[in-house]
Protein 1
Amino acid sequence: MQLNHAQRELTVKVVYYGPGLSGKTTNLQMIHARTASEGRGKLLTVETHDDRTLFFDLLPVFFHTKGGYTVKVKLFTVPGQVIHNATRRVVLQNADAVAFIADSRRSAGQENNQYWENLKANMRENGLNAAQVPIVIQFNKRDLPDSKTDAELEETRARGKEPVIGAVAIRGEGVLETLYAVIQLAYRKMDEQAGLSRNIGLSEAEFLKLVFARMDLDGTQVSSWLASGGGPG
């Protein structure tokens, strides 16, 4: 979190992390497509022969609070290929929250676990406390054969503290729900650290409402979550 009182600006960083081709870039592309042009910046993507995203995607979503602050929510992805671990570590620096994008097929379980441990290791390298940085887990590709059942996802939820969301990112299913969950947890952590509600007059409800104000929420659970102040976690 970067909070600049002189310039009245708050910058929030969310990193999408996970194995190669798990759907990290697809998530950002879908968020970008559902956001009106006046509410977002340019989606930057670098594609290479050995990985879809060599460095990162950056999708800033801008809005202005009633208290006069400009808020920039920046979404990054990391490269999934094993050889790019140094880049993953750099992109993860100063993350306010992480969306871990896993492949929900049972055959991908070992790779998911390897990248989960890799995430924790890179957090430690960056001085981030994995027990304190909010993490949301998305199980993507649930339309494919051999994907985990609803009951299996429920077991995963029961074992950990992180919200778990099923998704078919290529169809946009679960994408905004994942973003909502990770943004909500990011706000709560930042409010705990910097007193956003008390010091700059930015409540959780206003923060979430403004993040999604220019997004097409049709067919998602986000509208009802915004109305109730609830969420998946």
Note: The domain at 2-228 is CATH 3.40.50.300 (Rossmann fold).
Protein 2
Amino acid sequence: MSNRFSFVKALRLALLETAYMVSLSLVISIVLGTLLGYCLYATSNRYLLPNRSTNAVLGFVVNIIRSMPFIILLVAVLPLSKTVVGTMVGPKAIILPLVVSSTAFFSRLSESAFRGVNKGVVEYALSAGANNVQIFFTILLPEAGSTLLSAITVATVALLGSSAMAGTVGGGGVGHFAISYGYERFQTRILIVCIAILAAIVQVIQFIGDWAARRADKS
């Protein structure tokens, strides 16, 4: 009975850690990724902020980050996490690597969403005297709303997977729980439980994301 209570308590803590890592990283990376995606879009658009050099530099940095497997990026960024939060283990230390990876990933998704907006609408707004800030908030975000929501769903699922991978280096969460209680103790049933939990979470995220995107598309 005591072992079962300890198991349930550890699993609950792991779920809370995963929720903390994913939710905080998601909010930060959505904000940063949307702004970065807009910069990539605007600097390549001859009507907004055309600047080939800036676009090339931003694109190069984003592509370098995206080309790195998360486990390598994680190990590379963890020393910086220690400088920022004072530790290289636990959920707090994993936030920064998750944000770096997800921001680069989401920036490309948001850039693609902005490119999907009718250019005629943007040109009309510019001819009417709208500035870049107004175009961003009143044209691009509303017009790309459903696509951005779908992108957020994809980014959330990717973050969930990355947070689980972070468990291999003591990042906490469901991934660390699966390794500590399942893999290292040869408890296959615990691994199956963790897989089932993550699969269920992904299904819920996808359902909510698809529903929100459909609502935004209709409106």
Note: The radius of gyration is 20 Å.
